[in-house]
Amino acid sequence: MELTGNTLTLKSVNEVLYNNEFVSVSSESMERVQKSHEAVKKIVEEKRVVYGITTGFGKFSDVYIDSENVEELQLNLIHSHACGVGEPFPEVVSRAMLLLRANALVKGFSGVRPVVINRLLDLLNAHIHPVIPQQGSLGASGDLAPLSHLALTLMGEGEVYYKGERTNTWTALEKEGILPITLQAKEGLALINGTQAMTAMGVVAFLEAEKLAKQSELIASVTIEALQGIIDAFDEDVHVARGYYQQVDVARRIREYLADSQLTTRQGEIRVQDAYSLRCIPQVHGASWQALDYVREKLEIEMNAATDNPLIFNDGEKVISGGNFHGQPIALAMDFMKIAIAELANISERRIERLVNPQLNDLPGFLSPEPGLQSGAMIMQYAAASLVSENKTLAHPASVDSIPSSANQEDHVSMGTIAARHAYQILQNTRRVLAIEMICAMQGAEYRGVEKMAHATKGFYDKGRKIVPSIIKDRIFSKDIEAMSAWLKESDESSLVDTRQGSKVQ
Asked: Where do we see the 5-imidazolinone (Ala-Gly) cross-link in this protein (predicted)?
């Protein structure tokens, strides 16, 4: 894949992150990069006062730096700003940060040498991923602390993940024959003044969220069969009458999953209406898809954005200090995604309750093989309720908070990286809630008779039973929940549903 600074998509990023596609830069893009660097050299030679090139940073923007000190200025910048704390980002997020930072610099507005971009891609293609602490970013001026830890690796400092181990950067570079670089004028600032930590975390969360949202519909379909749900509520006319295409699509997919089921019922056959957690699946899940569509749009814009400061235009004739590093667009998108994914867990937990509560169904109490002597799925519902409650706390919008920094020079910040991190935490919790629903739904469907299930859901059930066997006796269900969650994380819809027979789901 060739980077141009303008053409990254979530699909292409997915190929790089998970299918190890090799990444390079187009020659035309590198020409732009070189011209931008020449403009920076000219600014230094002419001793022009330009922020971050011949001045200090933040509140020190009025302090002029002599040309002989510009390299030391960049080194000091990276060292002083590398103060991230806490657990590292997942390795795949560090990989995404390398890709996204390179793509931003390729746009040719940042003034770096081509070697800086080449070195970022050397690390990416050699699978040398920086160890980057998760906490410490305000999300404006960009992700300064996390990106400083990324910049350290270009200089041969810090730590990296390499071949399954965490090691010092120098060791990994030496084994791959990659030379560290000394940062020149503006290069340190260009590397760290951006939104790539929050965007990378957001991209990874989104890719997993999109997959989980599809899985949630398949799991809900098994629950509908276990509870002999009324299929009429998914009739296309109902959803077209509302007008949201995402809602229409959810209803269609569930109809197709359940097309040949002998376990669904018609209205009035057993009951007139189902509870909302069954009847309103298209409306609730569809609304989450609407939010995900919004998030997709914002991420794909940000992945191709120039987000550092200052930006260099017209071969250096116009250098402007602006605020493209401000993470507000991603902060709001991540807060929106948090709510959307939390709601998938919310409604899933209510379906779990309907599966296990003997006052709400005609299944064995708590799906127990021996109600009373054995508790069955009783405490699995507790666990789901706990995760859903934790999600409600994490879903509080990070973007409504701001604390001034740099002696009040940077007096409004986005907290977008916190929003992205919390979105990923909510995602993990939600996957576990859906794993619990799947375990309970399989048990309920087994009680009804798996031979009566639809072709699509029966295939899903059969694969699920290889992960979590039938509950014939109480056991340590924590292991089952984690096994089911891990399976969902590693599986995509095409591997869960046989689309060749009985299902036309797209």
From this structure: 140-142
CATH ID of 203-311+324-405+412-496, from 1.20.200.10, 2.30.30.30, 1.20.210.10, 3.30.420.40:
1.20.200.10
User: pLDDT value at position 504?
Assistant: 52
Which ranges of 397-476 does DSSP label H, i.e. alpha helix? 416-448, 455-467
Q: Which backbone phi and psi does 140 adopt, to 5 degrees?
A: 180, 125
- What are the structural domain ranges in the chain? 2-194, 203-311+324-405+412-496
* pLDDT, tens only, 191-211: 999 999 999 999 999 999 999
What is the CATH topology of the domain spanning 2-194? Fumarase C; Chain B, domain 1 (1.10.275)
User: Which tens digit of pLDDT belongs to each residue from 18-61?
Assistant: 999 999 999 999 999 999 999 999 988 888 888 888 888 877 87
Residue that has been written with the tokens 């299930």 in this structure: 453
Q: What's the pLDDT tens digit per position in 428-483?
A: 999 999 999 999 999 999 999 999 999 999 999 999 999 999 999 999 999 999 99
Reduce the secondary structure of 65-121 to three states and give it as a string: CCHHHHHHHHHHHHHHHCCCEEEECCHHHHHHHHHHHHHHHHCCCCCCCHHHHHHHH
Give bridge partners of residue 166 from the DSSP assignment.
161
Does residue 383 contact residue 412 with C-beta atoms inside 8 Å? no
pTM above 0.90, yes or no: yes
Q: How far is 435 from 191, CA to CA, in rounded Å? A: 40
Burial of 139 (0-12, 13-18, 19+ CB in 10 A): buried
Which residues belong to the active site? 51
